[in-house]
């Protein structure tokens, strides 16, 4: 299985990074190929919202880190996405990357209805917040980031195989 990992935390060895590394132990075999990226180390421009990628499947901006990830999204069988929770959502750099990936994640019908391009693939979501359990659930801290990622991944055709919520992490 081809596994793509996107660590959306600026701290490679922080809570999200460590959770990803522990999860990857489960997939450590010759049958799996794993590609790991720290999103904060990628260089890419922000999406300009031109929507040309919805027709062509390719972003019109210069070739950069987002183009590389786009190719790997098409290559992977499973996507693992981890993010710290910032103001009830995913990290800004991770969100900016997903904005740039629209062309490989979905297209649209002639009536403007979104159509997934990654059907049949699995995804795992990992979130980490400082708010301790059960208050992270009561206040919805982790839920916002999880909901945003689920929306992106579900519209893209990914099936969420697992959600991991880390709470009370500093």
TrEMBL record:
Residues 1-168 form the Flavodoxin-like fold domain. The keyword Nuclease does not apply. Keywords: Flavoprotein, FMN. It holds the Pfam family Flavodoxin_2. The keyword Zinc does not apply. InterPro entries: Flavodoxin_fold, Flavoprotein-like_sf, ISF_SsuE-like. This is NADPH-dependent FMN reductase. The lineage of its organism: Bacteria, Pseudomonadati, Spirochaetota, Spirochaetia, Spirochaetales.
């Amino acid at each position: 299985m081809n596994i793509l990992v996107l660590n959306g935390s600026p701290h490679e060895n922080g809570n999200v990074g460590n959770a990803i590394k522990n999860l990857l132990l489960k997939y450590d075999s010759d049958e799996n190929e794993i590609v790991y990226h720290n999103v904060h180390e990628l260089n890419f421009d922000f999406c300009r919202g031109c929507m040309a990628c919805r027709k062509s499947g390719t972003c019109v901006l210069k070739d950069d880190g987002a183009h590389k990830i786009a190719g790997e999204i098409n290559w992977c069988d499973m996507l693992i996405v981890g993010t710290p929770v910032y103001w009830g959502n995913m990290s800004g750099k991770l969100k900016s990357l997903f904005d740039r990936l629209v062309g490989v994640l979905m297209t649209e019908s002639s009536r403007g209805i979104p159509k997934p391009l990654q059907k049949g693939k699995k995804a795992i979501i990992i979130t980490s917040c400082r708010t301790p359990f059960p208050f992270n659930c009561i206040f919805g801290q982790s839920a916002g980031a999880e909901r945003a990622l689920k929306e992106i991944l579900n519209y893209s055709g990914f099936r969420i195989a697992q959600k991991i919520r880390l709470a009370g992490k500093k």
